[in-house]
Amino acid sequence: AGWFRRLLHKPKPRSVESSLDSSRSSSSSPSSSSDRSGYSPSTSLVSSVRLSPILVSDINASDSARWAKSYDVCICHSEVDLELVEELVSYLEGQPESFRCFLQLRDAAPGSAMMTELCNAVQNSHCWVMLITPGFLQDPWCKYQMHQALAEAPLANGRTIPVLKDVDRKDYPKELRNLYYIYMALKENSFRQIRDTIMHYLQELCRSSASRME
Is residue 204 exposed (0-12), middle (13-18) or buried (19+ Cβ within 10 Å)? Predict the structure, then answer.
């Protein structure tokens, strides 16, 4: 009887199903830091940009450093991607910040040399969005404008914003390999990431300008 009572009160082993559940749980937990920092074209490396406390009103103020240049962002793209770029420009210009975008076919001065216009657009913009598509990689003018942007700001500091669409990681321009990129999977999410990145740079620009004035 004593043996039978001890058997009834003996702790039951964990079931196989419970063990499997535990295994699944551990495998779905965050991986090592090296895995998280890996760079894959299937996900965006500019997943979220934390906006600073500086208000939109500060950026839009008449004495803001934002107005030191003619444009907030220059969009570098291939002509075959014009329709997508027009959607992006419409989105950015429709934001509360009313971003000033340079769109070559719309804003270039008629009769001006293309090389001159491209250089002026780069120099007179705070940020440069590089829409890297198969068309971009085949367009010598896109590559020229990319090199001008990198020459203008070799360390980038958030000014150069590569956006990949329908391009494999192996085809990502070597000149931009030191920069994180946005991979355009869902258009709406990518547009928001581009907006947040531009806003982040303008906030840092205003903060830096305010610090110098103090």
Answer: middle
Question: Does residue 214 carry a pLDDT above 70?
Answer: no
How far apart CA 46 and CA 78 sit, in angstroms, is 22
Beta strands 125-132 and 101-102: pairing type? unpaired
pLDDT tens figures, 57-74: 667 776 678 999 999 999
**Number of neighbours of residue 198 by Cβ within 10 angstroms:** 24
Alpha-carbon dihedral 130, 134, 135, 138, rounded to 10 degrees: 100
pLDDT of residue 19: 38
Eight-state DSSP code of residue 171: G
Structure confidence by residue, pLDDT tens digits, 91-111: 999 999 999 999 988 999 889
Instruction: Supply the pTM of this predicted model.
Output: 0.72
The answer to whether 145 and 118 are in contact (CB under 8 A) is: yes
Residue with tokens 């997943």: 47
Burial group, residue 214, by CB count within 10 angstroms (0-12, 13-18, 19+)? exposed
Q: In 91-151, where do the E strands start and end?
A: 101-102, 125-132
The full set of domains in the chain, from first to last, is: 71-213 (3.40.50.10140)
